[in-house]
Structures are given as structure tokens and as C-alpha cells.
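FAQ
Q: What does a multi-component entry look like?
A: The components come first, one per line:
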Amino acid sequence: RKKRASQIMSRQVVVVRPYESIRDVAKNLIKGGFNHLPVVSEDDKLVGIITSWDISKAVANGLVDGKVEDIMTTKVVCAFEDDPIETVAHKLKKYKISAVPVVDSERHVIGMITSEDMSKLLAKGE
Amino acid sequence: RKKRASQIMSRQVVVVRPYESIRDVAKNLIKGGFNHLPVVSEDDKLVGIITSWDISKAVANGLVDGKVEDIMTTKVVCAFEDDPIETVAHKLKKYKISAVPVVDSERHVIGMITSEDMSKLLAKGE
Ligand SMILES: C[S@@+](CC[C@H](N)C(=O)[O-])C[C@H]1O[C@@H](n2cnc3c(N)ncnc32)[C@H](O)[C@@H]1O
Ligand SMILES: C[S@@+](CC[C@H](N)C(=O)[O-])C[C@H]1O[C@@H](n2cnc3c(N)ncnc32)[C@H](O)[C@@H]1O
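Then the predicted structure of the entire assembly, as C-alpha cells:
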């Protein structure tokens, strides 16, 4: 009965690398229609997260010609596949964030949960 | 028992005008720590919405030197004070958006609800 992260996470996750340009990341967000992108290293391990908020910050500071690694957040709040939904919601609330990557024991990204996914659980008929 | 929009909306809403610059809007989003800003006319009526996603789109298209009215969304999905929470969640899901302004009968903005506010309702202890 109790829903877990694996049941609501999106599994088709687009990732970016630290050396990519902010402009290319912006194009990825628009093409995908989402706001968050996990940043992974050469061996596909999670090393950061970059969001449309970070890109807005780059605009505010006149830094849009930079790279992902210049503006990404490195201390990433994550979720695990079998986290109960209440735990995921608690993490979003505590850190005032709108998405958490779901990682496996080796820190590979296996999914993404956004506050929009959480809100869908409250929509009528759910 | 049934929660309504008025109970979870934030009431301190920062608004912007159509003629303001994209750079100034970005500064507003960063200062406030949020992603959405309602756009209002001279007589404080809702005429659009601009988000960090729109700013990312401006970065993708090389348009960051423009104005709010160049990139804002004009057909705004809104909520009303006595909308049940399920209705608000349904609107967010249907239009694939992460926030709705709450307006009164004269289209004045009296609050804002984000998918983060919705997600908080699922956090343990709620
Ligand atoms: C603190 S939030 C404030 C705005 C809004 N609450 C949101 O989440 O977009 C924005 C910052 O949170 C960071 N962030 C987003 N998701 C994160 C996560 N899962 N772990 C750590 N930081 C994250 C972003 O990189 C960005 O710098
Ligand atoms: C379609 S969503 C896709 C990304 C993500 N779901 C989000 O909401 O940020 C992004 C677009 O939705 C628009 N938008 C956000 N809130 C809206 C609302 N309440 N009514 C109409 N459009 C809205 C923004 O202006 C932006 O152009």
C-alpha cells in the first residue's frame, strides 16, 4: 500500500557532464520540458545537480558563458529506490528543493523525482 | 477536513511588470529563492507568468537582454481561494506546470501555490 520512490520516479533521466556549457544545459532543459539535470562524472557517478534556478542565477550574475561545474550544486540531496514517499517529501521540504535524483549503492543515477511527481499523487482520481 | 487553496498558498507574492528586464527578474528569483513570478499590469491585474524555465529558454536562444513581455506566458492557469487541493493538483498535472497564482474575482493576485507546497502535504508528520 505504502508507495516508494521506485514507483513514482521517472526512469528516463537525461544527465550532463561538468565540462558542458551552461547554454547547452539550457537547451537540454527546454528540449526535455523539465527543470533539473543530474551531473555525472566520466564513470557515470553523481557529482552534482544543475537546475533552471542555477541558470537564472547565472543570468542575474552575468555568467551565462560559463560551464556546468562553475554553477552546479555539488552536495546533492538524493533518494533511494525503496525510500517511502513520506521520506522523499520530507527531504524536499527540509532542503527547500524541488527534485531529488534516485541513486543506487554505487551512486549511479537510476531515476529522478520532482515535486511535480509528488503533487500528482494528490490530484483527484489518484 | 478538506484542505483548500487558501490554506496552503503563500500570501507574500512578489510580482513583476511586463516592461522589466529579464536580468532584473532573474535577480528577483534568486533573492526570493523561488522559481515563479506573476506578471501584473499597471492596475495590478494578472497578465502573465514568468519562471526560471522561461529564463533558461532565453539563455538557450540567446535572448537574455530582452524584457519580461518578450518571454512570459500570457495564458495563465490560475487557482481560486476555495479550490480544493485535489483541483489544484489536477491543474498542475494537466498543464505540466509547477505553480499556479491564486486570484480573486477581479484577477488580482492574492497568493501563489507551487508543487513544492503540494509536496509538503505528503511529508511525514503532515
Ligand atoms: C535552494 S533551491 C531554491 C529554489 C527552489 N526551491 C528550487 O528547488 O528550485 C535552488 C538550489 O537548489 C539546488 N538543488 C536542487 N535540487 C537539489 C538536490 N537534490 N540536492 C541539492 N541541491 C539541489 C539547485 O542546484 C539550486 O542551486
Ligand atoms: C510547461 S512548463 C515545463 C517545465 C516544468 N513543468 C515547469 O513547470 O517549470 C514551463 C512553462 O510553463 C509556464 N507556466 C508555469 N506556470 C504556469 C501557469 N500557472 N500557467 C500557465 N503557464 C505556466 C512557464 O511560463 C513556462 O513557459
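Q: Is there any commentary attached?
A: Sometimes. For this entry: Residues 51 and 80 of chain B are 20 Å apart (CA to CA).
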